[in-house]
Amino acid sequence: MSTLQATAATPVSALPLPAFKRSRGHWANVAARIVRNPLAMIAAVILLTLIGIAVFAPWIMPADPFATSMFTRLKPIGTPDHLFGTDELGRDLLSRLMLGGRLSLFMGITPVLTAFVIGSGIGILAGYAGGFTNTAIMRTIDVLYAFPSVLLAIALSGALGAGIVNALTSLTIVFIPQIARIAESVTTQVRRSDYVDAARASGASAFTIVRAHVLGNVLGPIFVYSTSLISVSMILASGLSFLGLGVKPPEPEWGLMLNTLRTAIYTQPWVAALPGAFIFITSISFNMLSDGLRSAMEVKQ
Amino acid sequence: MISYLIRRVLYALPIMLGVAFLCFMLVHIAPGDPLVAILPPDASVDLQKQLMELYGFNRSYPEQFFSWVWRAMHGDLGSSIATGRPVAQEVFKAVGNTFMIAALATLIGFFFGSLFGFVAGYFRNSWVDKIASFISVVGVSVPHYWLGMVLVIIFSSQLMWLPATGAGPDGSAAWIWDFEHVKYLIMPAVTMSFIPMGIIARTVRALVADILSQEFVIGLKARGLGEFGVFRHVVKNCAPTAMAVMGLQLGYLLGGSILIETVFSWPGTGFLLNQAIFQRDLPLLQGTILVLALFFVSLNLLVDILQTMFDPRIERA
Hints:
The structure holds two protein chains of two kinds. Chain A is mainly alpha-helical. Chain A contains eleven helices and no strands. Chain B is built from twelve helices and no strands. Chain B is globular, with a radius of gyration of 24 Å. The mean pLDDT of chain B is 83. The chains are: A mainly alpha, B mainly alpha. At the A-B interface, α5, α6, α9 and α11 of A face α1, α5, α6, α9 and α10 of B.
């Protein structure tokens, strides 16, 4: 106490500061916790490797992924020059897997990102507006939610026809209601909180409240939920290509490669199963990273 | 309770109507003429008009929608453009086949999911929990169509224990409950069971851990109830939720069987959808999806009602 009184006349910069450490922000805490989670870190390393390979595929591919050859069809794993064997048209499987990662990852992640933007918007609007707007939006969302996601994805892309854009559109529509539901419930909670009431009482406009108080508090939980959908999205996107509703040949994509190699399960079974293993590794890594992120966000201190 | 039931049923009706509307719209979001699959490229304008009238495509959308819903309510889903057979008949035949694998998969998934979930929940953070939790992550992350292929590779192509595709020896269509036929059922059902297994294991683990940390459990132990007695209480407390999850999973599997049915050439609704999509047979697509989605909505309703009836703690005023 005595020091405080003594410093009243001296400038602030001259104060003898006590050993002071600035407390970390919320996101820095989350990052610090997730770094200590070994499973999540392994998953992150795997994903970064896969994404890196996909991005740099054109420069690091060992062979031309489109070059067919009648003489090297369906070679086993470990063949010289074809480390992962060759596919039913004699194309180098390793190169196709590397380049195929581009479309597979793109088609798995994009729908969730798009749905995150649109679904959050819809959900925050419904949650903040409340009343009739809320009922109208949420009942419409309920109709889309009434379909099992695989069925909705296949119904939409089946009706729209095969193609990358149609598959992406269908998957985005599948994820919008799921994200909007979470966004709506989180926003409703925030809207009822005292600090929003206080902001409103002090004359803040709806826009200011949403920007300053709602967004910061709801986007985190919505984002974490959305990351848990990427794994499903990967499986579904490759599944659509597997059915022939997504990427068209000869473009390499893991789901499509799995489909065309299906005829080879008696001649080169392990080569035929390889593209699926990549879908699996990606999907499980996204799940583990998302689980890690969720537990890092749950503050129990 | 009665008022809750009535309101829950009334709430499901607009959803069902919305689902029907979406299925109806499928034909109209599709690019091109819905009749393109059957019309020869050089079809005369007269023939085109005649067919448009026959299928009702020349009327206004609301008119088409309500007449479609009205006929659907009477069990008439129109006729397949590709085969000319009634859609309802085709769908119900296929639904039976899909139901067989979906129901078996749900049972297998429920059994193993509960087992892993209980073990994980009881021995939280032990190595058993870590393994059980890992299995459940695998269950929800594995692309099931790939898992199906891997099982075919192991059990058909390598070991030659089970048939790879089909629903009966010599491509026979009629199902009989004998060993020869059941052999065809095993792999699709086991493949499918991984999805509910992972989800049920996660649910049960969280439930068990939550129940064990509640005060009444400490109370039961304090009064001298043995391990088994406590276990019975835990089971009773998590059964309603676990059963509800299982019910919903059955609905998801019925609707999502197309990928697995494609891998195993199983003659169910997935096979029908595949056919409908690639022959651009839109009435068949529309009808199959309507039946599956309505089944899912009804199952949701049933699960909700049963859960309220069995679990007196749930108060839904």
